[in-house]
Description:
Strands 2, 4, 5, 7, 8 and 9 form a 6-stranded mixed beta sheet that branches. Helix content is 26%, strand content 31%. The protein is built from 2 helices and 9 strands, in the order H-E-E-E-E-E-E-E-E-E-H.
Amino acid sequence: xxxxxxxxxxxxxxxxxxxxxxxxxxxxxxxxxxxxxxxxxxxxxxxxxxxxxxxxxxxxxxxxxxxxxxxxxxxxxxxxxxxxxxxxxxxxxxxxxxxxxxxxxxxxxxxxxxxxxxxxxxxxxxxxxxxxxxxxxxxxxxxxxxxxxxxxxxxxxxxxxxxxxxxxxxxxxxxxxxx
Length: 179
């Protein structure tokens, strides 16, 4: 009987590991750009109970410019459940596929070693006067089943570990019965 309890405990632990929380940034992306002096709608999806309740959004430049180096706070303490934030781009940050947004847990102490909870794809910021993009299905990134290879690897690894463990328990029980 103790082995059955051990099996159920293992199943429970593995299930908790499989409930992966994830924040996926939908816009901006390579097709959905920002425009100087316009509002850029930042959108995301959130799943799981382990997502932070509030996020801080920072802008990072892939290639530092004279006007911009490091990280720039776009929004702070935004409820994750909102799924959107409107950022009015007022600084001259023009750059083609030069920008990335990083989401951080707003309740954690932010420093250069803090790991982001999500990161956008590269996107552009166009000069003032450029026609803003239309927010439709052609400009919104779709989340695919294979979008996070690390998660996929984790599931495969957990499955192998789980089946190996169950096999070991069954083998151990069958050996105990013969003795």
